[in-house]
Amino acid sequence: MFIEVIILSLIIGFIRGGKISRFKGVNFRRMWILILALIIQYFLITMNFVEELSSFESVFKFTRELSIISYILLFVGILINLRYRSLWIVLSGSIMNFLVMILNGWKRPIILEELELLGLEDFGFLLEQGKLPLYTPLVEKTKLAVLGDIMLVSKPYPFPHVFSFGDFIICLGLFTLIQEIMMLEDKKTGSMVQFDFMGR
Length: 200
Fold this sequence. Notes:
Layout: H1 2-15, H2 28-47, H3 57-60, H4 63-79, H5 86-102, E1 108-110, H6 112-117, H7 121-128, E2 135-137, E3 149-153, E4 161-164, H8 165-182, E5 188-189, E6 192-193
């Protein structure tokens, strides 16, 4: 989901007259922590949907630890760049996902019925068996169920999936972030475009 949003935002940025060259002015010394956190979270989600789960068996043992590390990095990465307005949106979505996970044993509640609509019966079976370390079935006793993975994008969309409201907010923040960077007015000092996430 994150990948599609990034690509879509880049395309819309081009249509609006934005420039990808403006990313050169981003202070990635402050940004790398946030990028690493998102990569870890994307990996943890994706590996649960891979058919050959045995390939990630050794990683599964450390899912909780990796999740905790990713959220620490995520919050630190956001906080050191918080003067950049779009990251407030990313922060709010991250807090939603963090809360629902921490209240449900560091697992993401996901609704089984929607998995069947996506043709992911095998995933649903493994989920019911408790063999997926990142997910847990959404049931009556699930805490903050409304923030679980209950939103569905189905066919004809080429990459159908289930996601949470927090994921949606994070994607909205990333979309806005890319738009802001691409639409920035060039601040020239000689021939250099200067911009960083602390507003300098």
